[in-house]
Design goal:
The complex is a heterodimer of chains A (about 230) and B (about 600). With about 230 residues, chain A is α+β, with helices and mostly antiparallel strands. Chain A contains 7 helices and 13 strands. The longest helix of chain A has 17 residues. In chain B, about 40% of the residues lie in helices and about 15% in strands. Chain B has about 600 residues and is an alpha/beta fold. Among the domains of chain B are: about 55 residues, no CATH class; about 90 residues, Glutaredoxin (3-Layer(aba) Sandwich); about 220 residues, NADH-ubiquinone oxidoreductase 51kDa subunit (Rossmann fold, 3-Layer(aba) Sandwich), CATH 3.40.50.11540. Classes of the chains: A alpha+beta (about 230), B alpha/beta (about 600). At the A-B interface, helix 2, strand 10 and strand 11 of A face helix 4, helix 18 and helix 19 of B.
């Protein structure tokens, strides 16, 4: 079935239309359906790493950011099993980092925090790990606080200076962390630092010498939960 | 150093996709990757330094700090520990007067832990500058260390003695054959007919997943394109397997011929063998065998006299990463990147190596292909079971009289297997390695077959005297934590949470609720993660909870709902040490 050259698919029983080849997450957005994600940015090659956008595609669990829609695809999104999995993943992110929202500059604008509210996380079921992480504050305009990093890879995929990647992974497994190229980062302008801060979904990349600029009540997620801009369109 | 590295880069045409080879050469030369080299590589390849370092830090055998002129990697697999690894490790520490995972002050020798090196049939074993030293004991350690100190060549430290330990030769892999006969038969057919024959034979992937090889080939053909790659996955990293080591030693030409048959069927010009770093000691002999194949016109130009059929094989060395055994992680690694498995779709048969259609087949699978061509698909299907045709090469180790490699027909039961290897008073069999199943005696009637107990070939026999949870399940879980690429949140972080919970129970601090939570939490990874590693990382915990629950129950405090106590002295020890105070703890 097609309409205006678009293909038909369903999310939770709701009829949807999308361009062939579009990812499920982007196609859902166009149809007013929010699929949660912390590592997706439209137009950037998906990483499929946060695993929050896991949906059921014809009964199989797949990430919505990496799977293209297909004719008559049946997608399940808001079902108890996935809600539970997503809540669990959010909790895992909280315990495996050091996320102290009240003192964080990104509070109110942080997507992880907003996601925890959306999924009504009160406390985590998992014990906190309180890992020891280093902060890198050497460059003039930008600093990296690994305590808040969720390793979504957005900075690695999106932030370049002179055509080279400023950020990269280092290590693997439980040693995996993000590093900043000192030479490139030290040459970043204030505007570029701001851009990097805006790309980071949490408070791991911050612009130096400013903080708490937006008053409580006017921050991104103060009034409406994350995803409502898509759902209320 | 600059000129040396610039000319090395030139040897590889400043090709970023050959970064792994470049780094291997530098690591060999300097015993680490110096910062200066990182900078030169970054400049020449137009990358940032952190970009180069992200590849370096992904692999176990690359290091930014010196690993020693003689880098001794002592296997730390569970089976090595069953057979005296600790004694050997202590002997190294004593002889060298340094603790593990450090280098002597003069930079001469470093001693390091390493994950399974594929020598479970001759443990404890170590890898020293690429050479294997099996069956170690404290006396041999003494000889090795004194040899190193007096400047002997690596090969002269001890007589080389990696055993093949072929305990049973079966009808497929080890049957007599004439080199070139399979390729000759294939060349008499059209490529389509070759694919049909392989499809009809029902050869399934021997790496563990069991995907039908013929179907994979068919998908690849349908992807089209002039540039198609064939990759032989010789990165057997599943702890407990070593059968590919034996194939690569004894039957390399059977493998190369299978690759040439696949190349003919799929129109491939270049085949690549991804050889795990731990097996680099086989590289030169494999090179010799390749040359002999070329001399026989079974590789090279106009193979078998067929004009236009040109195909050759190169060896790509890995650098120490379990997850690179996953086919898309392996492709990333071959492109000189971190071995992070890719998201699918697209599948490698559509977009693989250098984004071209790529077939990745296991060593044993390709060997089966040669025999299928020689003897026909009906012959192949007459062996094994209906759904699992042919034989399986098993690597059997642990508490048994005759560890080694066994070629058995699919359908053999676990108890028949245990009789065959001379194992009695068996507590458990770890079937298929840590990512497989921990099987208890009530299931020893299970059959080794895709339809019952699928396995890539690792079989670890665990005797009654062993501490299953502490000495097997815990190190298996730690193995997955270390080897995770770290991309997916549940694989990277949930496995740590599970390990900590397991340790809590092992420490006698668990209550019933802890067992229930452990089981409930562990299930999530199976569907939530991207690749096979993440999906099976909790299998040691899940399958041992399913089959050995009483072992857990014996460790918990049954009379308590919660444990609220904690040890005050332990809790304040670190801060007391920092401020130099003696704790003054009041107790009532």
């Amino acid at each position: 079935m097609t309409k205006n050259g678009k293909i038909y698919f369903e999310i939770d029983g709701r009829p949807c239309y999308a361009e062939k080849g579009q990812s499920i997450i982007d196609a859902a957005k166009e149809n007013g359906v929010y699929i949660p994600s912390l590592c997706h940015f439209e137009g950037v090659k998906p990483a499929g790493s946060c695993r929050l956008c896991n949906v059921k595609v014809n009964g199989r669990t797949m990430t919505a950011c990496t799977t293209p829609v297909a004719d008559d695809m049946v997608v399940e999104n808001e079902i108890p099993e996935l809600d539970e999995l997503r809540k669990s993943i959010i909790e895992i992110m909280f315990v495996s980092g050091n996320h102290f929202c009240p003192s964080c500059e990104k509070s109110g604008n942080c997507e992880l925090q907003a996601m925890a509210y959306r999924y009504q996380m009160m406390v985590t079921r998992y014990p906190y790990e309180f890992p020891v992480n280093n902060v890198d504050a050497n460059p003039d305009h930008i600093f990296l606080d690994r305590n808040r990093c969720i390793l979504c890879k957005l900075c690695i995929r999106m932030i370049q200076k002179d055509g080279k990647n400023v950020f990269a992974f280092n290590g693997r497994g439980d040693h995996l962390h993000v590093v900043m190229d000192e030479e490139l980062a030290s040459r970043m302008t204030e505007e570029e630092a701001q851009e990097a801060m805006d790309i980071c979904p949490v408070g791991a990349i911050l612009k130096k010498e400013q903080g708490y600029l937006v008053p409580i009540g006017e921050r991104k997620f103060d009034k409406l939960p994350i995803g409502s801009d898509i759902e209320n369109k | 150093m600059k000129d040396k590295i610039v000319s090395l880069l030139k040897q590889y045409n400043n090709d970023r996709s050959r970064l792994l080879d470049i780094l291997l050469d530098i690591q060999d030369e300097y015993h680490h990757i110096p910062q200066e080299a990182v900078k030169i590589i970054a400049d020449q390849l137009n990358l940032s330094r952190v970009d180069v370092e992200q590849t370096i830090t992904f692999y176990h055998f690359f290091s930014l700090d010196s690993v020693g002129k003689y880098a001794i990697y002592l296997n730390d697999s569970v089976v090595a520990n069953m057979f005296g690894r600790e004694e050997v490790a202590k002997a190294f520490e004593k002889e060298l007067r340094i603790p593990f995972n450090t280098v002597t002050e003069d930079g001469l020798v470093g001693i390091w832990d390493t994950a399974d090196i594929g020598m479970n049939d001759q443990e404890p074993a170590a890898l020293i500058n690429g050479e294997i030293f099996p069956n170690l004991n404290p006396a041999k350690v003494k000889t090795i260390v004194s040899g190193i100190k007096s400047g002997e060549e690596i090969k002269d430290l001890l007589p080389a003695e990696v055993g093949d330990n072929i305990q049973k030769e079966g009808p497929v892999l080890f049957s007599e054959y004439e080199v070139g006969a399979g390729l000759k038969k294939a060349l008499a057919l059209t490529p389509e007919q070759v694919v049909e024959e392989v499809k009809d034979s029902n050869v399934r992937g021997r790496g563990g997943a069991g995907f039908p090889a013929g179907m994979k080939w068919d998908f690849c053909r349908k992807s089209g394109g002039d540039e198609v790659y064939l990759v032989c996955n010789a990165d057997e990293g599943e702890p407990g397997t070593f059968k590919e080591r034996v194939i690569l030693t004894k039957l390399p030409k059977l493998l190369f011929e299978g690759m040439a048959i696949a190349a003919y069927a799929l129109n491939v010009k270049l085949g690549i063998i991804y050889l795990r770093y731990e097996y680099r000691y086989l590289e030169s002999e494999l090179g010799t065998a390749l040359q002999e194949m070329r001399d026989l016109n079974l590789l090279g130009k106009a193979i078998g006299g067929k004009t236009g059929f040109d195909f050759d094989i190169r060896i790509q060395l890995g650098a120490g990463s379990y997850v690179c055994g996953e086919e898309s992680g392996l492709i990333e690694s071959m492109e000189g990147k971190r071995g992070e498995p890719r998201n699918r779709p697209p599948f490698p048969v559509e977009k693989g190596y250098l984004d071209k259609p790529t077939v990745v087949n296991n060593v044993e699978t390709l060997c089966c292909v040669t025999k299928v061509m020689i003897n026909g698909s009906d012959w192949f299907k007459s062996i094994g079971t209906k759904e699992s045709a042919g034989t399986k090469l098993l690597s059997i180790s642990g508490d048994c009289e005759n560890p080694g490699v066994y070629e058995v027909e699919w359908g053999l039961s676990i108890s028949e297997m245990l009789d065959m290897v001379g194992a009695s008073s068996v507590q458990a069999v770890q079937g298929g390695g840590p990512s497989g199943t921990c099987i208890d005696p009530s299931q020893f009637n299970k059959k080794i077959a895709f339809e019952d107990l699928a396995t890539g070939g690792s079989m670890i026999v665990i005797g009654n005297q062993r501490d299953l949870l502490r000495d097997f399940i815990l190190p298996f879980t730690n193995f997955f934590i270390e080897e995770s690429c770290g991309s997916c949140v549940p694989c990277r972080s949930l496995t740590i949470i599970l390990r900590n919970k397991l340790v809590k129970i092992l420490d006698g601090k668990g209550v019933k609720n802890d067992i229930d939570e452990l089981y409930g939490w562990a299930a999530q990874g199976r569907t939530a993660n991207r690749c096979g590693l993440g999906q099976t990382a909790a299998n040691p915990i899940i399958t041992s909870l399913q089959n050995f629950r009483p072992l857990y129950e014996n460790l918990i405090r049954t009379n308590q709902e919660y444990i609220s106590e904690f040890n005050m002295e332990d809790a304040v020890a670190e801060s007391c040490e920092a401020v130099g105070r003696v704790p003054n703890i009041h107790s009532n």
